[in-house]
Amino acid sequence: MTQPPDEPTLELAQPKTSVRLGAKKLQEIKRGQDLIEALGWASLVTTVAIFLLNGGLQEITDLGSVLYAVTRLAALLATNLLLIDILLVARVSWLDRFYGHDRVTLAHKKLGKPILYLVIIHVLASVTQFSLLSGENLINEFIAMVTYTPDIVTSALAFAAMITVVVTSLNISRKRMPYEVWHILHLLAYAAVLLAIPHQFSLGNDINSQDFATYYWIALYVFVLANIAWFRILKPLLRAMTSKLKVERIERTSSDSISVYLSGKNMKKYRAEAGQFFLFRALTARGWFRPHPFSMSAASNSKHVRFTIGSRGDDTEQLQGIQPGTTVLLEGPYGVFTESRRTKKDVVLIASGIGIPPIRALAESIVGHEDDVTIIYRVRDEKDAPLMTETRELARIRGFKLVVLAGKRATPNSWMSAGPEGATDLDRLLEIAPQVKNSDVYVCGPTAWTRAVERTLNRAGTPRPQVHTEEYAW
Ligand SMILES: Cc1cc2nc3c(=O)[nH]c(=O)nc-3n(C[C@H](O)[C@H](O)[C@H](O)COP(=O)(O)OP(=O)(O)OC[C@H]3O[C@@H](n4cnc5c(N)ncnc54)[C@H](O)[C@@H]3O)c2cc1C
After folding, report:
1. Which atom of ligand 1 is found nearest the CA of 316?
2. Pairing mode of beta strands 373-379, 401-406
3. Using one digit for the tens of pLDDT, what is the confidence trace for 81-94?
């Protein structure tokens, strides 16, 4: 597909000149995902194989030896899964490219509980086994183990750290604490891995066997730690040192949102696909340890990276007052809410409120003739909505259809504003975008609203792989 020329009024980046359509590219992504998952499973199979080859089941004669085998296998599987789980949230770009932030985070959350169960089994089985040998009760035996074996002390601390991480990750606890507290507690997972290492190598017969098993475990640790060190620490720091990114200017885009323009040297290092997001860390006394994810609100260009930030909580409220000249560190880009996932000629972009930034950036860079792109923007107040004037101007320049749905909700379950009597969300969507069934649809807004849009798309017959969502959730 080729792109019609622009009429330059609003300063816009040149849209991309071509895009590859068709479902084949999704199959290629699926093949990449299959390979990554096969490697994950292969590491678990290798762990079990090492256990069996080291005679894991050969010496089973009584309850004590059964408990010993259970202790070893549970510990090995838990360690392997924990390393995979940490890799999933290390913001590793090769994982992000295949799965996107949402799916990787979901997989990470799902692994938390099985890991904790395996660690509990490991602790209970080993304390029970030793109490059978010594004749002590479980509590005395546990105290004796922690007191007399130095590496067990650190492993007990690792166990406590893991329980804290998993318990604070349960939805019921997460909803009660600010993101920053949860984030700091979650960093204990790294402490848990490091604290558990000494006892794995000093007491774990399977790991310290000095043969293939030892090399395998060292390789696994080094691989995970190297990914974390590079993607989470070194890469962002090196880029920050060479680019010296600072807030260049700020524009108010509504009564509770601002656009922040960042510029520095070597801006091409921050090139990203429209729809992607960065972790934004303002280097101020309050902000340096409180990074927040924000989507670019304009397509990449050589002058600046731009974010549009709505006031949704304490930090984003503080950010409304960010000053020009503030140094900012960006980690990323991340996410697959991009044209790389597009398979159809027609595109429908749907945003609600502060969900507009990635939709606005996509509309700027997307390849499309006038009739190909429809933008639906749901707002409470048309006169006070983030990026409203700009989105109108952009749609006018590119010739895209823009429909603003302003005002109160039509019904409590609707994601649209009030419309003609008796018309359902589906009726109205089909009227706005009759081609929606055969389009790629990009949706960004609050979680409940996004689910409602997805239900309507499902009724309209838009296949699931053509629906792309970005949720502002952690
Ligand atoms: C991929 C992605 C892209 C985003 N893009 C934008 C954007 O372009 N513009 C914009 O204004 N907002 C965006 N957000 C949301 C923004 O990150 C949060 O509103 C912000 O982090 C809230 O911080 P707070 O301390 O002000 O609020 P809090 O009081 O801590 O929380 C307010 C709300 O924001 C959520 N939240 C808080 N911290 C985070 C976090 N680090 N990650 C995800 N959700 C969080 C909480 O669940 C809560 O619902 C995006 C979020 C994600 C995940």
Report:
1. 26
2. parallel
3. 989 999 998 889 99
